[in-house]
């Protein structure tokens, strides 16, 4: 599998790699470039990977590295390379130009190795998805399956995202628009997605979402001066985004694994009569949200929270400030949503219960923060983790 993927990657590198340099330096750089051998690049990549200092490199390797730094674009649209990410960035900005500011930032982090659906896609025929209760394979076996079959991981992720958008958000992929019925966020106008490959070999999805009929921040802030519109705005957002779990009294087994049971079947309506009384359904949902939320959405600080010099604080800013009631501060144009539990990730109850994966859903309409959020989001969802030694590899293939 990896060999085949590597062949495809090499082919793409050969066909779609372009070097751009300043016109005045073209002659000299072209001459120097033609003298670089694949062997030198391989050696340089190896030394950089082992974190050799620049001063310890040989003169030949140093020249090659300098040359590499003078060539602006190594490759166009190759998945994972910086130029491809730049393309994504400009595409997102085009969406901003056309649709205005997005309203919601949604992150979906499926736990692939704990999913019976993934096990089935991986080829484990002992999984019977028709059963209400599933048995999971041990975590380390799940992790091996994940590492063993990246294509199944990508298939599973694509399947999950398609299900969320078509069944929960009511997006019609054939028509590229919201279905007439809409979904749990009502009707979407557009969305943009970026995938991120994690160090565990899994995939995360980051989405910016535009709601149909949603206002730009400036228009919205004018409307929020009206108490009635402000009330309706908060009713809507508190309905779709929660920052607390239901206040129900349930005992949760510490070993509870949300992926071993299917979600409850939603009520059906026959001749105007629902199959389950609304109060009973609310109670079932509250119990499920509590169970799944405690396991999947509660933030517990770990070592990753303190990476990048954040020794004293959690870089994800947990615990969040508890906010008793949503409010709009007209002076700073801040939209602040209710937060009942500072250790909880923002969640939507239906995404939580029906997908059973960690997720995050944020309203990004808060004054200047909206603009700051845009810069943060485009930077974050297109962040590169490409090390210098990795940049040598496509060069090596081309030469
Ligand atoms: Zn933390």
3D structure, described in words:
There is one protein chain. The mean pLDDT is 85. It is built from 14 helices and 10 strands. The longest helix has 19 residues, at 150-168. It is 44% helix and 11% strand. Helix 3 runs antiparallel to helix 14. The chain has 2 domains: 2-80 and 387-398, no CATH class; 102-266 and 274-379, no CATH class.
Q: Using DSSP, what is the number of strands?
A: 10
The stretches of 5 or more residues where confidence is low (pLDDT under 50) are none
Return the average pLDDT rounded to an integer.
85
* Cα radius of gyration in angstroms: 25 Å
Instruction: Report the total helices.
Output: 14
Ligands and ions found: zinc ion
Helix content range: 40-55%
Task: Give the total of domains.
Answer: 2
Backbone shape: globular
Write the SSE topology.
Blueprint: H1 2-16, H2 26-34, H3 38-49, H4 59-70, H5 82-99, E1 104-109, H6 116-122, H7 139-148, H8 150-168, E2 171-172, E3 177-178, E4 188-197, E5 203-211, H9 217-224, H10 227-240, E6 269-270, E7 273-274, H11 278-296, E8 327-329, E9 334-336, H12 349-355, E10 358-363, H13 367-381, H14 388-398
Antiparallel strand pairs: 1-5, 1-10, 2-3, 4-5, 6-7, 8-9
Helix pairs in contact: 3-4, 3-14, 6-8, 11-12
Bound molecules: zinc ion.
């Amino acid at each position: 599998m990896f060999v085949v993927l590597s062949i495809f990657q090499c082919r793409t590198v050969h066909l779609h790699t372009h070097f751009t340099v300043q016109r005045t330096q073209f002659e000299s750089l072209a001459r120097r470039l033609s003298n670089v051998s694949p062997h030198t690049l391989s050696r340089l990549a190896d030394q950089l990977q082992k974190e050799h200092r620049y001063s310890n490199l040989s003169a030949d390797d140093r020249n090659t590295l300098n040359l590499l730094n003078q060539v602006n674009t190594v490759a166009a649209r190759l998945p994972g390379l910086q130029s491809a990410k730049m393309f994504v960035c400009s595409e997102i900005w085009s969406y901003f130009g056309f649709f205005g500011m997005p309203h919601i930032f949604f992150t979906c982090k499926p736990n692939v190795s704990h999913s019976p659906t993934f096990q089935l896609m991986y080829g484990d025929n002992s999984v019977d998805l028709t059963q209400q209760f599933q048995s999971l394979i041990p975590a380390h076996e799940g992790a091996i399956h994940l590492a063993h079959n990246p294509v199944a991981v990508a298939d599973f992720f694509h399947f999950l995202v398609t299900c969320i958008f078509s069944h929960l958000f009511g997006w019609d992929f054939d028509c590229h628009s919201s279905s007439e019925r809409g979904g749990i966020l009502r009707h979407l106008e557009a969305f943009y997605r970026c995938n991120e490959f994690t160090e565990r070999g899994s995939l995360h999805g980051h989405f910016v979402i535009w709601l149909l009929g949603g206002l730009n921040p400036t228009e919205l802030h004018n409307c929020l001066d009206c108490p009635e519109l402000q009330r309706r705005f908060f009713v809507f957002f508190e309905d779709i985004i929660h920052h607390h779990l239901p206040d129900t009294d349930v005992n949760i087994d510490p070993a509870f694994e949300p992926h071993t049971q299917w979600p409850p079947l939603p009520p059906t309506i026959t001749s105007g009569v629902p199959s389950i009384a609304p109060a009973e359904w609310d109670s079932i949902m509250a119990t499920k949200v509590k169970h799944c939320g405690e396991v999947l959405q509660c933030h517990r600080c770990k070592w990753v929270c303190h990476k990048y010099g954040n020794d004293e604080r959690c870089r994800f800013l947990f615990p969040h400030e508890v906010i008793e009631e949503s409010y709009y501060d007209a002076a700073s144009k801040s939209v602040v949503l209710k937060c009942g539990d500072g250790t909880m990730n923002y969640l939507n109850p239906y995404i939580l219960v029906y997908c059973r994966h960690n997720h995050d859903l944020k309203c990004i309409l808060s004054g200047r923060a909206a603009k700051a959020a845009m810069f943060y989001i485009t930077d974050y969802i297109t962040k590169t983790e490409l090390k210098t030694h990795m940049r040598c590899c496509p060069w090596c293939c081309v030469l």
